[in-house]
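Obj: model holo form, ligand = S-adenosylmethionine.
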Amino acid sequence: MLNELRNISYPWSNATIIKNKLVPINRGNVSRGLDRIVKLLEDIENPTILEIGSEIGGSANYFMKNLNSTPNIICLDIWEKRGLGKGFFSNMEPSEKASKDAGITKKIGTFSVFYHQIKEYKDNIFPIKGDRIKSIHKIHKLGIQPDLIYVDCMHTYPECLNDLIEVRKLFPNAMITGDDYFSSNLEVMKSVEEFSNIHNQKYCVYGTQYVFPFNVNEFPEKIKYKNLENILEKRKVSPGPNSREPEFFKKK
Ligand SMILES: C[S@@+](CC[C@H](N)C(=O)[O-])C[C@H]1O[C@@H](n2cnc3c(N)ncnc32)[C@H](O)[C@@H]1O
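Output (holo structure tokens):
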């Protein structure tokens, strides 16, 4: 199956080799709560992760570095040459400074920076270039069922909601997680809340991440809530009503 996945992957040879030193891509992954997502995968040997929206490989790099068992990560993106920013808030122009720091130029597109950031793990990374909906159907056709899906693509409603609905339909047993819960005028939060209502499934919020687990009752044992108090205090907005986090939080 992995061979078939490699056959539909975007060839690494399309990446331009980058010689310059780039600004490190650590975008505060721990404070953002990605460490909690890693914990959810602790008991799964060589988990399969499907990342929707991989851009310059920030989260893929984090998963590779921090999981104790090597995952296979399927990374989806359009990898346009435009620069960093598109897709993040999909109605926004790319940020020149962020693009420059990341090493993105007219010649060196986001795919090359992505390659540069994850190249040491490339045997376990499968980049699929193109619109994410078409790509997830291709993956489903190959019979792949990811353990965890990380949605970090368009942050607009209803695109984000559409991503959630589509992955739940095709991959019913996967944990669904995603980033930037509080971003984009709370459009991600709105999508997550609506998805939660449609499926009658609660979710948790850690930092900026949201998580729909297989079974929400597993969470209190698996996750340590140590720093959540601080994170909640710093927030100007509380998670939506379907989020279980405050309830768990009270238990500690
Ligand atoms: C927030 S960024 C992802 C950041 C990434 N997870 C990281 O850690 O570096 C969102 C990405 O979604 C991609 N994107 C936007 N629309 C898309 C679409 N229709 N299909 C696939 N990717 C898309 C953008 O190109 C952008 O790179």
